[in-house]
TrEMBL record:
Keywords: Leucine-rich repeat, Membrane, Repeat, Signal, Transmembrane, Transmembrane helix. Gene3D superfamilies: Ribonuclease Inhibitor. The lineage of its organism: Eukaryota, Metazoa, Ecdysozoa, Arthropoda, Hexapoda. This is LRRCT domain-containing protein. The chain crosses the membrane at residues 438-462. It holds the Pfam family LRR_8.
Length: 491
């Protein structure tokens, strides 16, 4: 018996819902036996199947297919977390009255949730329904109804965090959040929206207290123009891995934004024509893995006057970031945001402009490895000043040592740090390789040095009449020429 009960969780951990009937039988019989043993003395608590600690009812990985009946919850009255992660639940039925803060139902196969399934969980602050099979048709406002009062359903007024990530939502019912209007965090990540249609757009903008919105991996090609019109508190927006090709216009209304991720979107250029709007509160911006991005031009980031952390990493085609990409002008002159962290590792950058950052000494972190740094005079400031003065403090000795020149040929492969004291020469006008030009120049010089005496010799010989072709002698040439040339006779 003891052996059986110990082995059950192990079997379940390895198993998933489709596992063999044989294993199923083992689990079932042991569970039943266990239940039976307990039920002699008291009502079978869910704690015979799940593990109940002080504040945590852990029903994870138990291959449960249905909910427990109400009486099995009897002695669970107040806990912090109830978790049914990674089971085989398909249908969520109403929970009994329990004081619980977090209900985790992620990684099941939930396709159906009964009306007011959570209304007795009045203390619920977080509901995690991610990694399930919820569809747009199924997800109706009544699901989130709170307790009934004579006039109306009360909202689930404590609910602040709702995770609907990784379901199959193409749109949202426009009143889906009417009973949970105080949500602060909404996660819609990993749903195939494509675009937010008017219903979805209205539903999301109805959440006036929203502080955090995760719409990563939603296949979004654009955002509605006024999506954030009502977002007076939105601090964090995650747009990772969508299909945006330009910065959404609606961002300009998200004025309270502090964190923004646009990682992995096919935006090609961020410059004056596709610039960030005025987001004065934005402290952190992530532009990583943008594989179509080739340039960050002057003015592109200039409106982000409060920026503290900028991450531009793994944009393999990003070859250029211009000198005034971040700086902005005020009546007092050119200013820069109070940048502390700048990560520009693993792009295709060749130059780091001197004026990109106002005060390099105010940085706390700098990452530059994995680029195509050119070691010519346009990088003199990076190589001769930034690296020797701040390199070690900002990126550590090892990372400074990893920085190598990829051009020009005479420095290729050398460490940037080894050139700190050199006066680096400039490339010529067309960024061609001057050493090639030099070879041509030397060739031309040698050619001239050889050609001049030879042609002179020929000229003199000709003058003396060594070459006679046909009847025409030198005398038939113009007199003037003859006269002038005769003065050079003794050369
Ligand atoms: C509920 O009862 C079971 C025994 O039936 C016990 O193991 C468990 O600790 C109890 N849970 C709580 C939260 O009191
Ligand atoms: C649970 O919610 C009720 C109603 O809002 C409230 O009276 C009670 O104090 C809450 N209990 C806990 C432990 O938060
Ligand atoms: C949203 O859900 C996805 C998928 O479950 C998860 O990876 C992501 O971390 C969540 N985002 C937030 C802000 O919790
Ligand atoms: C943004 O979303 C992606 C994917 O869900 C996740 O990996 C990342 O951690 C999120 N970023 C933040 C800051 O929540
Ligand atoms: C982004 O780049 C990929 C591959 O380089 C290309 O197939 C795709 O069409 C580009 N997308 C856009 C929107 O430019």
């Amino acid at each position: 018996m003891m052996y059986l009960r110990l082995s059950v969780p192990v079997i379940i951990l390895l198993a998933n819902c489709e596992n063999s009937i044989a294993e199923n039988a083992i689990v079932d019989s042991s569970t039943i036996k266990a239940d039976h043993a307990e039920s002699i003395t008291t009502v079978t608590s869910i704690c015979t199947v799940c593990s109940c600690a002080d504040n945590y009812v852990d029903c994870n990985n138990r291959r449960l297919e249905t909910h427990f009946e109400e009486e099995r919850w009897l002695n669970i009255t107040a806990v912090k977390v109830i978790s049914f992660e990674h089971n085989c639940l398909v249908h969520v039925t109403p929970f009994p009255r329990i004081i619980v803060e977090r209900l985790i139902l992620r990684r099941n196969r939930i396709a159906r949730i009964d009306n007011h399934a959570f209304k007795e969980l009045v203390n619920l602050t977080e509901l995690d329904l991610s990694d399930n099979q919820l569809t747009s048709q199924m997800l109706q406002p009544h699901i989130f109804e709170g307790t009934f009062s004579p006039e109306a359903y009360e909202p689930l007024s404590n609910l602040q965090i709702l995770n609907l990530g990784n379901n199959v939502l193409h749109w949202l019912h426009q009143s889906i959040f009417e009973h949970i209007a105080d949500l602060k965090v909404l996660n819609l990540s990993g749903n195939p929206f494509g675009v937010f249609d008017y219903r979805t757009s209205i539903a999301i903008s109805s959440l006036s207290y929203l502080e955090e919105l995760d719409i990563s991996y939603c296949e979004l090609r654009e955002l509605p123009n006024f999506q954030f019109h009502n977002a007076k508190h939105l601090k964090k927006l995650n747009l990772t891995s969508n299909q945006l090709t330009v910065l959404p216009k609606s961002l300009e209304e998200a004025r309270t934004l502090e964190y923004l991720s646009l990682d992995d979107n096919p935006i090609r250029a961020i410059d004056r024509t596709n610039a960030f709007p005025n987001l004065k509160m934005l402290r952190e911006l992530s532009l990583c893995g943008m594989l179509n991005l080739t340039v960050i031009g002057n003015g592109g980031l200039s409106a982000l006057t409060g920026l503290e952390s900028l991450y531009i990493q793994n944009c393999w085609k990003l070859g250029r970031i211009e000198e005034y990409a971040i700086a902005f002008t005020t009546t007092e002159g050119t200013m820069w945001p109070p940048l502390k962290k700048l990560n520009m590792a693993s792009n295709n950058l060749r130059y780091l402009p001197m004026l990109l950052i106002g005060r390099w000494d105010k940085l706390e972190e700098l990452r530059l490895t994995g680029n195509q740094w050119n070691c010519d005079c346009d990088n003199q400031y990076l190589i001769g000043t930034i690296l020797p003065e701040y390199g070690e403090a900002l990126m550590g000795e090892n990372e400074v040592d990893e920085l190598t020149c990829s051009a020009p040929p005479e420095h290729a492969g050398k460490k940037l740090a080894s050139l700190a004291d050199r006066h680096l020469r400039c490339l010529d006008l067309y960024n061609a390789r001057p050493e090639k030009d030099a070879a041509i120049l030397v060739g031309v010089l040698i050619g001239l040095l050889i050609a001049i005496p030879i042609s002179m010799t020929f000229f003199i010989l000709w003058r003396r009449g060594f070459f006679f072709c046909g009847s025409q002698g030198p005398g038939s040439f113009s007199r003037a020429f003859y006269k002038r040339a005769s003065n050079d006779d003794d050369i």
